[in-house]
Design a protein that fits this description.
Order of helices and strands: HHHHH
Biased composition (Basic and acidic residues): 1-22
Helix content: 55-70%
Region (Disordered): 1-35
Number of helices: 5
Distance between the termini: 75 Å
Structural class: mainly alpha
Protein name: DUF3408 domain-containing protein
Length: 144
């Protein structure tokens, strides 16, 4: 059986070699080989010039541990920015998905220090912060 397998493999290789001959350029003489080598060098020189400085390796930043003091400070910053009870005049309904609503409920319940805070207040603060952060960009984009 192994002789038949070897013969089958050889015939497959010959068949694939025959098919590849259509795609592989063949050189007719030694001079053609030299000219192809020169062209390859020129192309390589165009793509990768010799006077090009070597690429600098990118440094990987290592994540550092965050201390509990830093976490508390960031929580206080978050509370000061988003969990202060806002004064809302002329309320309008805003709809969010159930999944987002549940996550916002958890944020308000777990992180708010006051019972007066609501999801509506959190959304108001998030929107105010977003508008303040992107106010100039929004004005520029409007003019485009």
């Amino acid at each position: 059986m192994s002789i038949k397998n070897n013969e089958a493999k050889e015939s497959e290789m010959q068949f694939s070699d025959e098919r590849l001959k259509d795609f592989i350029p063949t050189s007719k003489s030694h001079e053609d080989d030299e000219s192809l080598a020169k062209i390859a060098e020129q192309v390589a020189g165009e793509r990768f010039p010799k006077d090009m400085p070597p690429r600098k390796e990118e440094t990987v930043t290592v994540a550092h541990r965050v201390s509990s003091k830093q976490r508390k400070l960031s929580l206080e910053e978050y509370r000061a920015t988003f969990l202060q009870v806002p004064r809302i005049v002329n309320r309008r309904p805003v709809f969010v998905s159930e999944e987002v609503r549940q996550k916002l409920d958890l944020i308000v319940l777990r992180l708010s220090e006051t019972r007066r805070m609501s999801v509506t207040g959190l959304l108001e603060n998030i929107c105010r912060h977003h508008i303040a952060m992107y106010e100039d960009d929004i004005e520029q984009w409007r003019k485009l």
